[in-house]
Every structure is written in C-alpha cells, then in structure tokens.
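B., you asked whether I could sanity-check this one before it goes into the benchmark set. Here's the sequence:
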Amino acid sequence: MLRLKEKWTKLSRSLGFRIALSVGAILVASYLVFTYFIGEIQQEFFFSQMLREAKSFSTAVLNATHYSMLRDDRQATAKIVRDLGHGHEISHIRIYNHDGVIKYADQRSELLERAMSLSPQG
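And here's what the prediction gave me:
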C-alpha cells in the first residue's frame, strides 16, 4: 500500500500527468458546453417546425371549409371539421367566432364554449 501511495504521489507531481489532467478537464467542459448549445438549437428547431406544421394544417382546414362557410352550410362545415379531426395525429380542431366562442369542433362537447375556459391540452 505504501508503494502505491508513493507511485501516486510521484505520478501526480509529474508534468505529463498535470497536462493530461488539464486537457481532460478542458475536453469534458467543452463537451458539456457543446451538448448544452446543441440541445438549445434542436429545441428551437423542433418548436419552429411544430409551428410551421400547425400553420400548414390550419391553412388546410381553412381551405377545406372555405366554400361551405361562404354558402353558410353549417352541416357541411361541421362534417368537414369532424372528418379532419379523426386523423390519428390530430388532437383537436376548433373554429372560433369573433367573440371567442367555439362554433365548430371535432368534439361536440366543446361546442359553444369560450376560448378562455379551455386549457391548452383540451
């Protein structure tokens, strides 16, 4: 045990050991900083991607319901919204009026609710 302690003391005082330890610490710190920034960049990218897809889907819903809304065909608009809402990746579709009241939704229980009374998760 004494020989091991002497070897460790001798090794820890050598210049090569100190340089290797410093380089290792710098590499670990650099890796941690790099990982943090990459995580932030990916989070920002995926959030912007999610917003683009939501905007694209909103445009698709508007295009699908445009003609039936111009004709004031409420049954056709409601059917289009329900049909679009049955997609497996779609959680909710809601169309609000200017007062913030849900006029069309894929779930009938949400009809005529105010926008403020709903949580983001539904």
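One thing to flag: The radius of gyration is 30 Å. Otherwise nothing jumped out at me.
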